[in-house]
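User: I'm new to structure prediction. If I give you an amino acid sequence, what do you actually give back? Let's try with this one:
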Amino acid sequence: MQLRYAFRLYPNAGQRTALARAFGCARVVFNDAVRAREDARKAGQPFPTAGQLSRKLITEAKRSKERSWLGEVSAVVLQQSLRDAESAYRNFFASLKGARKGPKTGAPRFKSRKDARQSIRFTANARWNITGSGRLSLPKIGAVKVKWSRTLPSAPTSVTVVKDAAGRYFASFVIDTDPAADQARMAQTNRTVGIDLGLNHFAVLSDGTKIDSPRFLRRAEKKLKKAHKELSRKRKGSKNRAKARLKVARAHSRVADARREFHHQLSTRLISENQGIAVEDLSVAGLARTRLAKSVHDAGWAQFIRMLEYRAERYGRTLVKIGRFTPTSQTCSTCGVVDGPKPLNVREWTCSACGTVHDRDHNAALNVKTAAGLAVSACRAPVRPEPVLAQREETGSHGFPTGNRAA
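Assistant: Good question. You get back a string of structure tokens that encode the predicted 3D arrangement of the chain. For your 407 residues, that looks like this:
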């Protein structure tokens, strides 16, 4: 399987200028491709092919006076920008036909230099390399300083350079991993666990373990409020407003990085300790439309479950999602009697049939595990009726972490 390893970059002033030029050229080629397709659609003509767009928007454009500056950046960056536009249209049409899973995808939009995220991609034929001194040498940009947090397990197939809203630069390497080697590296175990995700506690496990919710956003609200207030007082278009906007972005990035690191550590621990894991298939988008929206977003359940999914696939674990309408909080884990719905302020309840006193969250975690039907055979292989192995979602260029953290 393919994984992304992200590392922080520290370009100097000249390299930042060269990266800004590359970001701008890639953005122009992408916008030209979208405009060419839209013009063809309005004229009732067939869409131009990728080869026609490449010849017109890159090869011929470099020879023109208006687009001669496209030759100042690597041609691979421009070609990859065209591929991104093609991929965006494929996803859009697949979404219209219902062939693409997940929420509907809109038509590609024009990119702006004011977008919070700018990126370019270099493939193997761009002749980029990692120098002997540990720097990342990029064509027409130079050798950029990298903060290596770990060693790459194999030779990368491509690298994406990203600038985020906080003005930080990252290099995201795509690595092909060996599933057999990954599974051999992870110690086998016969343990299984059910997880009940919540707000009072981030997660309660079926073995009784309760993991507190860090509430990163809530803890940082005072600083965020101050930063936003300072931003609102700055005159639009001024340099001071740009500085204040950067300060707000950095404050939000610290919250997001802390949450992501917490999810990484917890998901790694659960995958390493358990052969089978069961979670609820929560409707996070629906819960985010309630009065608990801020707390739901602060918990980041969707990101945590995605991490469990790809780690389970990578290390040969079993991840089972049970239906979101399964009455895990209403069912007695001892006798199986459904005791009816209960308000959220009821944290303990007594079963009317067997008299067992239940902790609401622990009881739900036990029912999640039971509903998943997890069991372990004598050979330590997970067994259940109609097993559902975790499938890793393709998250695209937005899926990699924005810190010195890899999958």
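You can read the tokens as a compact description of the fold. Here is one thing that stands out. The mean pLDDT is 89.
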